[in-house]
From TrEMBL:
One of its GO terms (molecular function) is histone deacetylase activity, hydrolytic mechanism. A divalent metal cation binds at D192, H194, D280. Substrate binds at D115, G165, Y319. GO terms for cellular component: Rpd3L-Expanded complex; Rpd3S complex. It catalyses: N(6)-acetyl-L-lysyl-[histone] + H2O = L-lysyl-[histone] + acetate. It comes from Wallemia hederae. The lineage of its organism: Eukaryota, Fungi, Dikarya, Basidiomycota, Wallemiomycotina. It comes from the Eukaryota. One of its GO terms (biological process) is heterochromatin formation. This is Histone deacetylase. Belongs to the histone deacetylase family. HD Type 1 subfamily.
Amino acid sequence: MATGLKKLKSKVAYYYDPDVGNYSYGFGHPMKPHRMRMVHNLVVNYELDKKMQILKPPRASPEEMTRFHTDEYIDFLKHVTPETAADLTRNHEICGFSTPRLAPNSPYKVLSGEDCPSFEGLFEFCSISAGGSIAAANRLTSGESDIAVNWAGGLHHAKKREASGFCYVNDIVLSIIELLRYHQRVLYIDIDIHHGDGVEEAFYTTDRVLTCSFHKYPDYFPGTGSTDDTGMYKGKSYSINFPLRDGIDDESYQSVFKPTIQRIMDYYRPGAVVLQCGADSLAGDKLGVFNLSMKGHAECVEFVKGFNLPMIVLGGGGYAVRNVSRTWTYETGLLVDKELEEDLPFNDYLDYYGPRYKLDVPETNMENHNTREYLQDIQQKVFDHLNNLPFAPSAQMRQVPNDPWEYSDHSDEDLDDKISKAANQYYEEPEMEEDDYQSAYKNRSVRLNGRNRTQNLQRQKRRFFQSAQTSGADQQHTHHSGCGHSHAPKPQLDDLLKLVVGPSAKRKPISHTPQSRLYDNSPEYL
Ligand SMILES: [Zn+2]
């Protein structure tokens, strides 16, 4: 039915803070924030800025970060300096408080040595990265853009109370939390060479977010991401892992990426997609061992874009900076439907691109250890898990009050609960029938339906927060936090998850021990 397909032009927002390139993880560290400056410079010199809105994101506040992370951890990031890092971690103190979590011999680490050093401006760097991804989510839910890009985001290893793998604040989880206020289901796709463990773990027990990661496994950081890790409780079957071997090339990658994503789209029916475009899966990466060309990597972006769903596009790993900037620039061009010249335009960092001065990142002749049999075997396992998925889960209507804002009349109710319940109103929007979905997908018109819906929901959101502010003033209360300051109540991920696991359920701490994560089977969880 190709004749019925109409290519829709997307409104693209691109978030960039000119300060981001000024931060440094330290001499010799593979992660170089400077690469974002190189991308932006190339983007502007290819004149892609004329095809999208370039926006400087507001920096994420500590309060926004603690929607996922613990107060203690964020306070620690805010106060730690290269000079105090050793003392603060050695003495197992955060912000003046001894915490049992950091008792001697605890498996927990806050900052892990060389990978996640404390560096000058660490907190500001995190607030830029997270601020861009949160702003990207808000941009989509307001209906102002169809696609929002934040190359400074995608830091997928950060955990609730721990930095990991060059990642301190998980901007992805924070952006998905924003999307969950409006969308019943969010799909997260991760094409970084490393397993997207921080995001998977955050949503491991919910069916509201399906995470799908393609990565090298086993014997590779962070040590997780087997096909057998499929989620728990209500989230069972909603974590999809596609382990790959060294040297995977474009053809092999697409032979599994496209069918897997198509199957997820068919059955899961997400309202929005977050795509983490880690560029360490490219050929020639300094840490990576895959063999994707720039065009092979970008084919993933193009394929996901083809579903015309509201989409956040994020960065991630990528340690051959000249190839990272080539690829993310090319992918930005693809998002705004602009073909880029093969010869690089003049730009501030031209020296990096010699001797060829070309845009492309070609495959190399490295051996592909992913045999057809291996890929088919893994594909079958993944499909078997996907077959467990019900069609468009959690779409059943629940009994909800006619007036979404009636909660504000109950002054004895915790504001967190109010926000959770009010957010629930957004999820209860009428779902399309399966047949409607089928035709919507065929016509690629889901995007337009989504836009009308999100505009409507945005109006509801404004009403809610006005209402919440008023009632919040009546029942101001504070709670004691790890640093002894008083904070206004705020919506928490736990509250969002209450919607899934029941109001009395609390998330239990999860062991962060690499290789074998242990989940607490407390019945309280169920
Ligand atoms: Zn990576």
